[in-house]
Design a protein that fits this description.
The protein contains 13 helices and 2 strands. By secondary structure, the chain is mostly helical. Strands 1-2 form a two-stranded antiparallel sheet.
């Protein structure tokens, strides 16, 4: 917790200095001061280009700090740690840090309107969304801790470099954040219903997730060059070689997180400068509500991951694997 507060204080200082200096050259896709931004709010000329949308990201800061407080209490209470999301364990701390990172990352984007702001915003989103599905694959694949962190770090660094050099699609038409949502749900289905048959069928779950975002299988089939990445839906099935050694409780927190996210997404679609509901000078902005509700979702998923309880361990359990507490 103390480290997180020091990092936040440092960020706030640098953010204020940069904003007071007028930031720097805006990104080519951002609007000029006085115009309406892509996310509906009118662009200001002060410290924050989009004040409401920027400050709403404090929701992620509150969520992340609350996670650290809960994890610290687990450690000081002296009670046995029940899973990898209890106490000051590396996976739990990574999840809390990734949630916290979402706040400053998005604040720089909405506050500065620079290319760096867009880059760090997207890096923060990927840093968060990688945690649950890579963790699921680590458990189902019996990876050791160093393998988990190696895969997580390599994918994140690769994404950051690729975005900086080639743009948000990495130069290959890949939206890693969107894909990762699908990979998370696919890996969660495998976690709950693991079997050899499910490993083969699991990739089909990705098409259901895509449909929830308005992308139908027919659209994908009609344009295979654009949607080539659907083959990646089978990554979890390939790597999930073993059943889990734990059981999670999905009601209420998993479903609350899903509901919070999709309500937020529905609101997000209205928070653009081209939508009829856009009111750029209103103190209530749809994109800001998106930030707040997705912050709630991160908290719900944190509580969900803490529900896991062990089941009978398979004979091939490796004491040095990520399953060890």
């Amino acid at each position: 917790m103390a480290i997180a507060l020091v990092v936040l204080a440092t960020f706030a200082t640098l953010f204020t200095i940069a904003g007071a200096s007028g930031w720097w050259v805006p990104a080519v896709n951002e609007q000029a001061i006085g115009e309406v931004s892509r996310w509906c709010e009118r662009v200001g000329g002060g410290l924050l280009r989009e004040p409401v949308n920027t400050l709403a990201n404090l929701g992620f800061v509150v969520s992340g700090l609350a996670m650290f407080a809960v994890l610290a209490r687990d450690t000081t209470s002296g009670t046995p740690l029940r899973n990898r999301f209890h106490g000051n364990q590396p996976i739990a701390l990574l999840y809390g840090a990734a949630t916290l990172f979402l706040g400053p990352g998005s604040m720089v984007m909405h506050g500065s309107h620079t290319f760096f702001g867009a880059w760090i915003d997207n890096v923060s989103m990927v840093a968060y969304i990688l945690v649950p599905w890579v963790f699921n694959l680590a458990v189902l694949g019996r990876w050791r801790d160093r393998v988990f962190f190696g895969v997580y770090g390599s994918v994140l660094v690769g994404y950051g470099i690729g975005y900086w050099l080639f743009g948000s699609d990495l130069g290959i038409g890949l939206d890693l954040f969107g894909l990762s949502i699908g990979l998370w749900i696919i890996s969660e289905v495998l976690y709950r219903f693991w079997s050899q048959r499910m490993r083969v069928l699991s990739g089909l779950v990705g098409f259901v997730v895509a449909l929830a975002f308005g992308i139908t299988p027919m659209v994908m089939l009609d344009d295979p060059d654009q949607y080539w990445w659907v083959i990646l839906f089978w990554i979890p099935g390939v790597l999930a070689t073993h059943p889990p050694t734990g059981r999670r409780t999905y009601t209420p927190w998993f479903w609350a997180g899903i509901a919070s996210f999709f309500i937020a997404y529905a609101i997000w679609t209205t928070g653009t400068d081209t939508h009829a509901w856009c009111h750029p000078d209103s103190p209530i902005q749809a994109h800001a509500i998106w930030h707040l509700l997705t912050a709630v979702a991160t908290w719900c998923f944190f509580l969900f991951l803490r529900t896991e309880r062990p089941v009978a361990a398979p004979a091939d359990r490796d004491g040095g694997s990520i399953l060890a507490s």
